[in-house]
Amino acid sequence: MANSDYYATLGVRRDASQDEIKKAYRRLARELHPDVNPDPTTQERFKEITQAYEVLSDPNKRQMYDLGADPFQGASAGAGGFGAGFPFSDIMDAFFGTGGGSRGPRSRARRGRNATIRVELDLKESAFGTTRELHVDTAVLCEVCSGAGTAPGTHPDTCDMCNGRGEIQQVTRSFLGQVMTSRPCPQCSGFGSIIRHPCQECAGDGRVRTRRTIKVRIPAGVEDGTHIQLAGEGEIGPGGGPPGDLFLEIVERPHEIFERRGDDLHCTVQIPMTAAALGTSLTIETLDGPEEVDVRPGTQSGQVITMYGRGVQRLSESGRGDLLIHVNVETPMRLEPAQEELLRELAKLRGEERPPGKFAPGQQGFFSRLRDAFNGR
């Protein structure tokens, strides 16, 4: 492989990082390993990617290779034609997630879990923001042991099975020879130490559960389903580990007047037909208080009056949405004799005693729709 392109063999760029090179090799090793695919051509390919990885994973050999020198100069060949740097541990990592190298004991301190609580708001609180005091049941640091999990005056003992390494090693035989693998120590669960005298307050967990109160500012413009992340406000992790995050899920209560659609608000007002014909002014209750709105003469049922900037504050932006007032014109169902006489006089003056009943553009009568249905139109 003296003239081979090791970068092309692994399928990485020439400026690839060590992590990218390792990931590429592990992926290919899982596909081409002789135990998985015994085809002779595949075995030869496996040797090629292993030799390429041996060079590119070693900074000195990689530098020599990039300069055009022989990266194996002075290196003794190992069994099967592989160099001294043959990556047994990375082959084991590719298949089992563990290699021959020691990783040391793992820490007892781990990050705490995230938590989610629901916060109910009314429309005005969602529109303009608010401040809430929340009571959260969560895990906090044990004050007796300060997260160590040990009783006062005691310390964890070194595990006598793994001698504090947190893992035990085992030698197995394969077609490549003897391979050493590691696994977590079953006695100390990989911690390298054993707590023989746990803290009585937290039972060795390093944390206790309690209720605490936090004050949070909810920004203007949130809506139903919005999630707010409070970093570091979740529960403390085991062993006094760092806290997780707290998420607030906003639940917006329905409003008796307004329907929210994004940043806009919608409402419906009923006005008599005389007010719609002659025009009038209405007092509308907005989120900012009562305001006067003019209804133009000749307003039809279904028309919309827009009050700009009277909607909800836009989240993380300037400005507000609009308030859209849908007008519904009421037709009286019962009239007093004097009222009926006045309406008949008005209809006579307007020539509407027998209205033609023309269809509006785009609309059809019942018999026209029935005819079209039979004709397949």
Task: Describe the model.
The chain is α+β, with helices and mostly antiparallel strands. The chain has 3 domains: 6-96, Orthogonal Bundle (Helix Hairpins); 115-252, Heat shock protein DnaJ, cysteine-rich domain (Chaperone, DNAj Protein, Chain A, Ribbon); 259-349, Sandwich (HSP40/DNAj peptide-binding domain). The chain is 23% helix and 27% strand. It is built from 9 helices and 15 strands. The chain has helices at residues 6-10, 18-32, 40-56, 59-66, 88-96, 123-128, 273-278, 337-349, 366-374, and strands spanning 115-121, 130-141, 157-158, 167-174, 177-184, 193-194, 207-218, 227-230, 246-252, 259-261, 264-272, 280-286, 289-295, 304-307, 323-330. The strands form 6 sheets. A 4-stranded mixed sheet has the order 10-11-15-14. A 3-stranded mixed sheet has the order 1-9-8. A two-stranded antiparallel ribbon has the order 2-7. β12 and β13 form a beta hairpin. α2 (18-32) packs antiparallel against α3 and α2 crosses α5 (88-96). It is elongated. The two termini are 75 Å apart. The model is unreliable at 76-86 and 95-102 (pLDDT under 50).
Keywords:
Helix Hairpins, 9 helices, three-stranded mixed β-sheet, HSP40/DNAj peptide-binding domain, 23% helix, 3 domains
Runs in which pLDDT lies below 50 for 5 or more consecutive residues are 76-86, 95-102
- Say how many strands there are: 15
Q: What structural class results from the helix and strand content? A: alpha+beta
Strand order of the largest sheet: 10-11-15-14
**Mean of pLDDT:** 83
Put simply, the count of helices is 9
Q: Termini separation (Å)?
A: 75 Å
Q: What's the architecture of the largest domain, going by CATH?
A: Ribbon
As a percent range, the share of strand residues is 25-35%
Topology order in helix (H) and strand (E) letters: HHHHHEHEEEEEEEEEEHEEEEHH
